[in-house]
Fold:
Amino acid sequence: MHHLGHPDILDTQGGTEIFQTTPDNLDLSEASEHLACLRLTPKGVHRWYAACCNTPMFNSFGTSKFAFAGCMTAPAGEADFGPMVAEVQAPKGSDIRTYGDLKLMRAFVGRHIRAKLSGRWRQNPFFDIAKNTPIKPVYVLNDAERGKAYAP
Structure:
């Protein structure tokens, strides 16, 4: 968040709330031309953001083979933030809920397996599935930028 100029999105511990889902639940058809990607390290997660305003939006793994999308939630008191619109569908019949680490991993693995078995993992707005490459160039922060990104 520091690198993108949005340290105000972070909570007092330096984190943010993330809603986990599978990429097929995202619709990035509006304003997708503004989508950009960076990594803090060469092997880190992909951090997708709206380049027009540097608003952080999603996290994904560095490969399309894992059906995972971590969606930023709006800061407390804000209905939305940034001009890009992404529609996220929660799993049918479920409420958004908070998990401990073990339940979080089980939920991720369950969603991933269901997406793989159904073929939904191929519906990924972040990757060219045939090539397993991101749809946008991925910028990797250099050492100086990475140091600033972890600023307190």
